[in-house]
Amino acid sequence: MAARSDREEWAALSLVLAWVCAAWGIVVMVGGWLLNLDILLGLAPGFRMVPSTALCFILLGFGLGLAWSCEPSRAKLAYRIGYVVVAIAVANLATFIVRDPAGLDRVLMPWIGPLDMMSPATSIGMLMASYCLFAVMAPDNPDPDGMLYFSVLGASTGFGVVAASLLDPLALVDFNFFRSMSVYTAILFVVYFVAILAYPAERLGRVVYRRRI
């Protein structure tokens, strides 16, 4: 009974953290960008969560919540959500190669600040998060450990960025890979990847699929 209770608590934690990601993204979009409350965007000037990053976390949170339901129609929607996040991340990475200024947000909204961009690290983190979203729903996942590896890597990297930012808000300025990443972005990566790690095994796509056949 105790083991079952622990599993249920972890399952609940996964769902709660998924909705935390979505809710925090909405707060950033509405409070930070529409109402101009800078404190909701980041703790240091030039390190603000941009709209595309907030949108990705909203989508990822909703996607994981939909996947958790184990309903086929909702899973299909979650897949589409994951593809949107992939498209945003890839498009953002492409701007660093083919455009100046770099960053999808600065291409679409040239009036924002020169450092307001989704960093390459954030883009890659979004790709990893999307992979994990796909993995939890996949009925036949050829690499079930990949989700674990990406989640641990993503959570530990996010935690490292948070620690560095709290010790010195400008510590990452000289690292182009992390430049402009908001501490809130790093926190949400930790939250999301912990949600993946806590995702209940009995709700994984490969388990649900086998159960139904």
TrEMBL record:
The organism's superkingdom is given as Bacteria
Keyword entries, A-Z: Membrane, Transmembrane, Transmembrane helix
- Entry's transmembrane regions: 12-35, 47-70, 77-97, 117-136, 148-167, 182-201
Record protein name field: Uncharacterized protein
